[in-house]
Amino acid sequence: MTDAAANTGQQQSMDTSLSDIPMAVVRECARIKASDGVVESSVVFNVGKACGAAGISFIIETETLVLESDGNGLLDEEPLLFRWNSVGEIGRSAPSVRSARGDFPRYMGHLNPVHEDMPASLCLARVGLQPIYDRWALRG
Q1: Domain limits of the chain?
Q2: Which among 1, 8, 40, 82 has most CB atoms closer than 10 A?
Q3: Is 38 exposed, middle or buried (0-12, 13-18, 19+ CB in 10 A)?
Q4: Count of CB atoms within 10 A of residue 116's CB?
């Protein structure tokens, strides 16, 4: 995803002004910022120029350090990406949840299968996120 302009928590493509950001995006960014463990200043909205995909990236503090036997695992602060296929899906459907860390361990449990050159996809619910999102939005 290519991103652009200001780090106001709503970063967008160069062709879009901040006033053009849909209210649903502003709301989702605010919900993420208000969530426990989220580093508020890290919340950034991105739009991919080529593919039109949209994402909100942020850093979240983990509750416990999970290390694997080789010393790899979750960091004290993990960069994450909520990704939607388009800006219009934000506020209407659950995002896919991806690690924004290139060296995220691929052998840990609770990962969805994705191509090795794609960011790790975190599995947060066996039935998928949509039922949780429909009931609780991003707070779920």
Answers
A1: 18-139
A2: 82
A3: middle
A4: 6
What are the residues whose beta carbons fall under 8 Å from the beta carbon of 88, sequence distance 6 or more? 22
Task: Look at residue 91 and give its three-state secondary structure.
Answer: coil
Q: Look up tokens 């909205």; give the residue.
A: 45
From first CA to last CA, the distance across the chain in angstroms is: 26
Question: pLDDT tens for residues 30-65?
Answer: 999 999 899 999 999 999 887 889 999 999 998 766
CA distance linking residue 131 with residue 37, whole number of Å: 23
pTM: 0.75
* 64 C-beta neighbours (distance < 10 Å), count: 7
CA–CA dist 84, 138 (Å, integer): 13
